[in-house]
């Protein structure tokens, strides 16, 4: 009997199927404990469709979505839908709880910084010109109306992938009751341990030696996210500049760890903590310890 046409790449791995596709500029994988090709194909399609929906809806690189409408609004008010409102509320909460360290308006700094592994460091003057366009405290947000000064932009890139993982997990839990692990570019979430094992084995990549796992984490339930400079950085005169920028200076945070992995109940929760820890630079471990969470830090 001919198998149904798969919308994604499927590979059988023992008692599981691995479903792979690309979305949000990242490799995406879903591991499902099932011997049924049809079940794996159906769940893979759910995961792929939702990931691509979120990318289309909230990527600042796509025209025609709500982010594009806001960024092209030239200071005028934009009415947003309920899903966008939820993300804006979360962004406001993150800005407040981080004392302004996490700021979705800081994406405009990408006009100066291009983390392509080269040695092209922008001029100080170029960065200074952009800083007046950064600051969540400058926007007006009274749901469902959003506005900001002309020239400013928002970017959900700091929470988008984690939000996508959590959304996919919720959809898959409604569609099945079998163990699965969602992994979008290293941000992952398991609904339960596989039946043939006590946990999912997850390798934490050595950030400065790409491809080598320095530690294996046994994940039964919940989320893991990793923030680091493995793929997006600049390097000049022996100094490495990671892609996580301080919104108040416009420069990469000095003395940040190579990577931080955080465990949490959801990817969104773990992701904001791993990013905030990176923004604390030398004090990353102190910040993480104060949060009473499990974490793994590479220096």
Condensed summary:
Strand 5 and strand 6 (145-147) form a beta hairpin.
CATH architecture of the largest domain: Roll
Mean pLDDT rating: 90
CATH topology of the largest domain: T-fold
Structural class: alpha+beta
Tell me the number of strands: 15
- Spell the H/E element sequence: EEEHHEHHEEHEEEEEEEEHHE
Q: What is the CATH domain class of the largest domain?
A: Alpha Beta
Name the strands of the widest sheet in spatial order.
1-2-3-7-8-11-14-15
Low-confidence stretches: 1-6
Report on the structure:
With 299 residues, the chain is of the alpha+beta class. The chain folds into 3 domains: 1-59 and 167-198, no CATH class; 66-155, ApbE-like superfamily (T-fold, Orthogonal Bundle); 200-299, Roll (T-fold), CATH 3.10.520.10. Helices cover 30% and strands 25% of the residues. Residues 1-6 have low confidence and may be disordered.
Write out key terms for the chains shown:
299 residues; alpha+beta; T-fold; 8-stranded antiparallel beta sheet; 3-stranded antiparallel beta sheet; 7 helices; 15 strands; disordered N terminus
